[in-house]
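Recap from last week: sequence in, structure out.
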Amino acid sequence: MILSGRGVTAVLGPTNTGKTHYAIERMIAHDSGVIGLPLRLLAREVYTRLVEKVGHHNVALITGEEKIAPHRARFSVCTVEAMPRETTASFVAIDEVQLAGDLERGHIFTDRILHLRGRGETLLLGAATMRPILEYLLPGITVVERPRMSQLLYAGSKKITRLPNRSAIVAFSADEVYAIAELIRRQRGGAAVVLGALSPRTRNAQVALYQEGDVDYLVATDAIGMGLNLDVDHVAFAQDRKFDGYQYRNLNPAELAQVAGRAGRHVRDGTFGVTGRVDPFDEELVHRIESHEFDPVRVLQWRSKALDFSSLKALKKSLEAAPAVSGLARALPAVDQQALEHLTRYPEIVDVATASERVEKLWEACALPDYRRITPAQHADLISTIYADLVRHGTVNEDFMAEQVRRADHTDGEIDTLSARIAQIRTWTYVSNRPGWLADPTHWQEKTREIEDRLSDALHERLTKRFVDRRTSVLMKRLRENAMLEAEISVNGDVFVEGHHVGQLAGFRFTLAAGSEGTDAKAVQGAAHKALALEFEARAARLHAAGNGDLALSSDGLVRWLGDPVARLTASDHVMRPRVILLADDQLQANAREHVLARIERFVNHHISTVLKPLDDISRAEDLEGLAKGLAFQIVENLGVLFRRDVAEDVKSLDQESRASIRRYGVRFGAYHIFLPALLKPAPAELITLLWALKNDGLDKPGYGELIPMLAAGRTSVVTDPSFERTFYKLAGFRFLGKRAVRIDILERLADLIRPLLQWKPGTSPRPEGAYDGRRFVATTSMLSILGATPDDMEEILKGLGYRADAVPAEEAAAFLASQNGDTASAEEAGASVADTGAEAEAADAPAAETETAGTAAAETPAAETEAETEAAVDTATATTPVAPASDDAAAPAEPEAPVEAKPVLLWRPGTRQDNQRQGGRQGEQRRGGQRHGQTEGREGGRRQAPHGKSQGKPWEGKPQEGKGSEGRPGGQRKDRGDRHDRNKSSPSKFEGRPPRKEKPIDPDSPFAKLAALKEQMKK
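Predicted structure tokens:
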């Protein structure tokens, strides 16, 4: 044991003092030299630097798994384990000598410190904590302390996602390292990963990824504290406990400082702190790390160098020898000693290892590193197999080795699988580099190195793919370089920056690709926007010059340019002038934004004025005055449709000239509505519905947009949905009538069919189909056809329009019609004719779709009820009076012996206020009358009226129904029906169903009035 420090210099100090650089410079000043480093990765780095200085033919690299030995190389770079026991080199350096206190590897460093010397100079490089023990063990040693080139400051605790760029996050387990790297990838674009278990090639590639700026974060174990030169500005501890091979323990201040010292490079200051679940460091610990004040190393780990190979027992005993010098402590059993302990229990090993040469060979085999991190027993089994081949055959069985190598030679699989294969192939790389173990070592060295490199590259690729967003990292790197990014936009709007897909450009809005989150999303978005600045300007110019055909207004209120949304509409003070909100990112600025907005506003105004031209024209009309102008204003406010009852007084007050002026703008005065027929088409109806929905927050209301397809399909009536917003029916051109809604123009056609039936006077002309007595009518097949309705639907519709029904037995109706027609046919034949007409009407339950309304109705009889009143009337009728069932050809036949009772005929009459007024003072008596089948109480102008008629099922007795009649009421009788029937038989020519009709003043603006005037002129 050499206990002398003569010729030995200890260069001690904290990290970032340039110790390794100094050793390299001193070594190349000698003619030969050997330097030992703690990691294969660091050895590779120093080897590369030496090659750059003196050439590759002058430098050898020797590790347990790799050997590059040019002929007559002057300098050797080794791991400490691979350093020669003796050397003739002029210079010897050992780096990170504080590892001599490590429980697992410390005894190897101690052996090199105490025994290996250079002929001219020996350098020991490490932490200042080694000074006392080195001065004690090596008297006469020269100690040089070097100060840190930059300051190291504590930055406290920060979340992982808020750590600054160029940070290293330190953890002490692979699972924790991977979890942190995954989080950083999602939040910050990616991280490089450095683990002691990775192959040197993989670690080099990961460090290069960080050093070259492709990622701004490094997640690593304490392996980065072993002299790796990294551009790290901040070190954050995500864990402060580790497993040292024997137990979990907290890191001591010197170990924390060794890792934290990686922050800062040369004269650039660095910071350190904690993150994740690690508690902030206390003030004393912070002070010690910042000032590099640590407890000195008091003992070094030691194991006897004088081994006795005479027998296994002697070898074990020599390994257990205690040091003879204070300051040294016997090391705990390492991997090789643990393997030897297991192997001495194998009978086959004990039987073979009898000679000293075989015992020494066994100890040499036990030095095989446990790269696979398996159990000591499993590792011992592998050593046993190798040792058996070495003893029996002198070399390892190449067939066995080929099979093991073949199993590892696969680059598929994920990170863990590839890591396991690399550990396996590193074992055989070590075997191939042991002298005398293989018959053809060169072949296997090349093959295992090739496989390890291929697996390492695959592992690097998997790590990068999993923990690095290459798109984001490239963009961030180019941004840091202030380079002009190259952007491309495909025809479908995909945005590529520097060849990477970063998102989608729709109109003037850029959307990041899926998977981009956190601050890296901001970086990518910033990069894309910077590159897309010119594209935004160009698009603004193209839109400003685009024609109206390139723009479209969709039913969701979005304005689209070539299919991409560029603006949306919202409510304003005027329903016809919605406000335009531009959908554009902030990169569309200044004049370009104003020009785009102005162009879209022009399109929207033009679109509304074109599609809703009649409404736009009447809103701008300057020739309307007085009541006509007020009525036009109401038409615009109600988007083209008014219920006539709501403006009845205003309409009555209009003179001929005013009506003519409004009609010139396409307004039609119908029996039930005042409306613009040109708007009852799908395109105007859809736009009207959208404008109302914008004004009333109705885009999300049930039923929005559901009725326009029915209108486009030509449906004249539809079954109502109680969940729909009621107003949507009116906006789509339908009148809501209880269980069914009918198109407005079709209702006016229905009025045209009903009007002549009510205007016909018995005995004056041939009776029109459906006419009864001039006051009532019967529903006809033509009515059902234009409505697209069944007889049951017809009842709902007519009741909703304010008509009331009197149920009359078929025999009475047939007899009455026979008397009106002047026929001599029997009542039975007339009754059969009425029944056939009813059956024919009921069979018309699927009429064909009707075309658009033609012509203009002349009569201007106001409707009876509001929509709310219609519902009340329908509900009242349903609750109080049974409705006569419609005839059905498929109904079950009656009993053969019982006569089939004919179904009553429903006679419809208008239940209007004017009708009541025509009856004079009999209105009060009518109010006291009873209801007949099918009648309901109605409302008109806030006043109730009770329709009259005989109840269904009452026999005709020929006697007056005193107190129950509806004398003077349209459809009612002054006396009972039987008495009237007898009188009709005796004197049909004198039959009077009601007092003479008062003539209504003729509307001079009516088409019929104009036709009459034209006839008069022709006569003259």
